[in-house]
Amino acid sequence: MTKPATSNRFSSRVVQLRKGATLEMVRLTCPDSAQALKIAESFGTAVVDSDGIRDEHERMVIASSASLAEGLGEKAMQIHLQRIVGAFVGSAHGAGQFYSRAVSEARDATAKASNDARDEDLDGPVGYGSAAQRKREFAADMGVQAHALRMAAEGAVAAYEHVVGETWKPFDRPVDNPGASLDRKAADAQMAALG
C-alpha cells in the first residue's frame, strides 16, 4: 500500500529564547545577609547595610517612575521598568557568578597551599600574604559586592511590583541567528528535491 502524495508538513518555526537572569538565580549565586555578615566578620571588612541598600533602591525606582508617570502610558512604564529592573538583576547575577568563580579559585589555592611539598604556595616576603590568602581576601571582597548588588536588585524588583502591580519576570529575547533559518530553508528545499 502506498501513501498519498500529499504533504502534511507544517512550517513551524522554532524560536530559541535567550533566558534572562531571574531573582532566584541571583539568590543562588550571591551571598545573603547572614553570609555577608559572616564574611565581613571573618575578613575584617565593612558590614554592608543590606536593608538600607534594598530600601533605597526600591524608593529610587518608585520615585523615578513617579516622575515619568505623566509622560508614559501604562504599557510604556511597564516596558521601561522591565528593562531597568532587568539591568539590576543582570548585574547582580553577573557579580554572583564572578563571586562563585573567585570562591572556587580560593578553595583550590587553599587546598594546594596545605601541601607542604609545594614551594610556590608558601608565604611571600614579610608584609605579603600567600597567594592562597590573597585569593581568599579577593573572594571575600567579591562576596560583599555581590551581596550589595543582590540587595539593590531585590529593591528594584519590589519597586516593579509596587508600580506595575505584577511580579517582575525577565524578558526572554529571541536569539538572533539569521543564518540558521537560511540553512533550514536550504535543507528543506534539498529534502523536497529528494522526494
UniProtKB/TrEMBL annotation:
Please indicate which superkingdom the organism of origin belongs to: Bacteria
Protein name from the UniProt record: ArgG
Species name:
Rhizobium giardinii
